[in-house]
Amino acid sequence: MYKSFKNLSAASLCCVLLIAACSGSESLEEDIPEPTLRYPELPFQIAPPQLEDGTDFTDWRPKECPLGYMAEFGRDNCISIGDPCPSGLWPDTKAYAQPLYVKPGGSGDGLTAATPHGSIQEAIEQSTNESTIVLSKGTFNESITIFKAVSIVGSCAKDTIIQSPTGDSQMTPIVTVSSRDDISIKNLTLTGSGPGIHANDSSGLLHLDGILITQALFYAMELSNAHVKLSNSIIQDTAHTVGYADGAIRADSGTQLELYNVGIFNNVIHGVHIQDEGSNLIARKLTVQGTKVMSGTNGIGLFIIHGANATLNQIMLNENTHTGILTSNTDTTIEDMVIVNTLALPDMSHGRGFEANAGANIVMKRAYIGFNHENGIGLYDTNTRLEAYDVVVTNTQERKSDNTRGRGIHLSHGAHGYFYRTLIDSNRQVGVYLIHYENPNISRTVTFHADQIVIRKTKTAKCAEPGVTPSCEYGFGDALVALGKTDVRLRNFEVYENQRVGLWFYDPTGTFYEHSNVMGLPQAVLTQGSVKDNEYGINIRGESVTADDFTGVACYQNEKTVDGCYTDVDLIVPDPL
Fold first, then answer.
1. d(Cα 119, Cα 30) in Å, to the nearest integer?
2. Are 568 and 532 in contact (CB under 8 A)?
3. Helix, strand or coil for residue 77?
4. Distance between CA atoms of 111 and 312, rounded to whole angstroms?
């Protein structure tokens, strides 16, 4: 057996792999669990996704809350969306020096609660920089355009409602912002037969707090070259017509988007879609759940592409479609994240947890990725790089179309993965799948370096189980497979109880598979680890990897081996596609 290093500092970990990398909401109830050691059987500790007080929110799912309330992130609790509803018709106006009052059916000058305006738009036109437009409880049937600095305050999100008029075009937003001044909107609901909020070329801060956007059409928020902060809010049930929708939030052209304590539920196409160089997303306590497809595609929870950057902290992705988070050509930093239960598309493909491609650069800390389909984590393309700390990838399920795959981690086409304190547990077909194939123009090696990693209990693909349709002859069940030009370095590792092979290194020179030409030679350096209780221990095909590449590796009790460890059996290779 080997010595485990449970207390390595971050600096020490970097040294180990240097070779690889040289407001005051009302609460309905309170329930704060004590922190627990989640994986006591491991030789090292993995920090789970957690709140500021250390509460593990791996198993948290947002609870159903009454109208006007939202799930408190990470707690079994409901809190009000924005300020709690007042007992009377109006919000407290003591903090506002020059209130302008608006009430449905009002006909006054708006200077007092007894003489309210009947139109929010009229109040906007009358307002000055010092004015605050105060809305009563009730439903305002109008769409508004904000073209100057203004503050709008409703009584509460449940009871102050702006609804687009039935006579408006379906393309007319409920709120249009065309100002470079700072704007504040608070404590109200937006709904109706048009889009929610459209902000274009709005460099001032648009602060939305305590907002419920429900059943908007096409999109809830469409932002272009804008600066928007959304807090303590819910976006839900965005609808679409045939052939057009933008999802809950779409942001592009340099938009700065901040999301704090936001829930995004049951929308179409995307939960959040941000793109273009100069665009930035900062999110904290963000839940994206139930994003659905339109015209058979998408349904992605977070879609970060084309040079946009993102900083994500305390994030929950649950029951989205296609992929939980997809990043492409971006820089993304993630701390404290859960991605679970991603659903397949109507064609039964995808359902993936986290995916990065086209040179995306990701740093991920404290993540749980479980019960998704096809791949838990997928990294593709030259210069795509993931540096991951304290990550669990577990119970990835089969690809629904053919019952194959279910891989924990998949790297191909020159991607690089660096993992520190990792559990790859109970996935299907292959725990970690590394392959260089098909493109002779890609000269860079697929890299997988890990310190303190356990790969265990990989099962066969579902298609190999009795009575399953579609079926397959081979289900595999391999912990780690390195095919072609790959660089594998493992330190302080355990590989055990996988259904077929523990570690498999394959030199495919001259080999042509049914769907791909796998090229190049694998390289491996393994130190201080164990491979045990698998059907095959370490299977080596070719001469580029030998037992001399392993130092301090205990390898035993692997069933189909002469010495309990090494074999060179010509096993069937898992298909890369």
1. 40
2. no
3. coil
4. 43
In angstroms, the Cα distances linking 259 to 100, 285, 510 are: 29, 8, 52
What CA–CA distance (Å, rounded) separates 382 from 446?
Answer: 8
Cβ atoms of residues 125 and 160 within 8 Å:
no
Measured from the Cβ of residue 448, the count of other Cβ atoms closer than 10 Å reads 26
Q: Average pLDDT of 270-284?
A: 97
3-state SS class at 15 = helix
| Strand, coil or helix: 19 | helix
- Looking at residue 7, its pLDDT comes to 36
Q: What burial class does residue 36 get, using C-beta atoms within 10 Å of its C-beta: 0-12 exposed, 13-18 middle, 19+ buried?
A: exposed
Question: What span, in angstroms and rounded, lies between the C-alpha atoms of 39 and 45?
Answer: 7
State how far the Cα of 235 lies from the Cα of 265, in Å rounded to an integer: 6
∠ CA 409-493-450, nearest 5°, is 50
Pairing of strands 300-305, 323-328: parallel
Question: For residues 77 and 70, what is the distance between their CA atoms, to the nearest angstrom?
Answer: 8
**The token pair that represents 488 in the structure block:** 């594998």
Q: Token digits for 417?
A: 């993965």
From the list 49, 37, 35, the residue with the least C-alpha distance to 336 is 49
Structure tokens at 543: 């001469």
Q: Is 67 helix (H, G, I), strand (E, B) or coil?
A: coil
- 126, amino acid identity: Q
When the pLDDT of each residue in the chain is averaged and rounded to a whole number, the result is 89
Question: Do 377 and 364 meet the contact criterion of CB atoms below 8 Å apart?
Answer: no
What's the distance, CA 236 to chain centroid?
Answer: 18
Burial class (CB in 10 A: 0-12, 13-18, 19+), 97: exposed
Three-class SS of residue 411? strand
Q: Where are the domains of the chain?
A: 88-136, 137-152+161-567
Residues 6 or more apart whose Cβ sits within 8 Å of residue 400: 344, 348, 349, 351, 373
Instruction: Kindly list the distances between the CA atom of residue 25 and the CA atoms of 68, 233, 382, 516, in Å, as whole numbers in the listed order.
Output: 11, 11, 46, 56
Q: Which residue do the tokens 């795509």 mark? A: 384
Q: Collapse the DSSP code of 91 into the 3-class scheme (helix H, G, I; strand E, B; otherwise coil) and give the result.
A: coil
Is there a contact between 177 and 149 (Cβ–Cβ < 8 Å)? no
Q: How confident is the model at residue 439 (pLDDT cuts 50, 70, 90)?
A: low
At 16, is the secondary structure helix, strand, or coil?
Answer: helix
Per the model's pLDDT, the better-predicted residue between 443 and 10 turns out to be 443
Residue 59: strand, helix, or coil: coil
Mean pLDDT of 477-502: 96
The predicted-structure confidence for 286-330, as pLDDT tens digits, reads as follows 999 999 998 777 899 999 999 999 999 999 999 999 999 999 999
Neighbours of 237 (CB within 10 A): 17
Rg of the chain's alpha carbons, rounded to an integer?
Answer: 27
- Non-local CB neighbours of 382 within 8 Å, separated by 6+ positions: 359, 413, 414, 415, 442, 444
What is the rounded distance in angstroms from the CA atom of residue 417 to the CA atom of residue 384? Answer: 8
State how far the Cα of 493 lies from the Cα of 26, in Å rounded to an integer: 47
Amino acid (1-letter code) at residue 166:
T
Q: List the Cα angle 438/443/445 in 5-degree steps.
A: 90
0.90 surpassed by pTM: yes
Burial 121-130, CB ≥16 within 10 A → b, else e: ebbbeebeee
**Tokens representing residue 433 in the block:** 């799948």
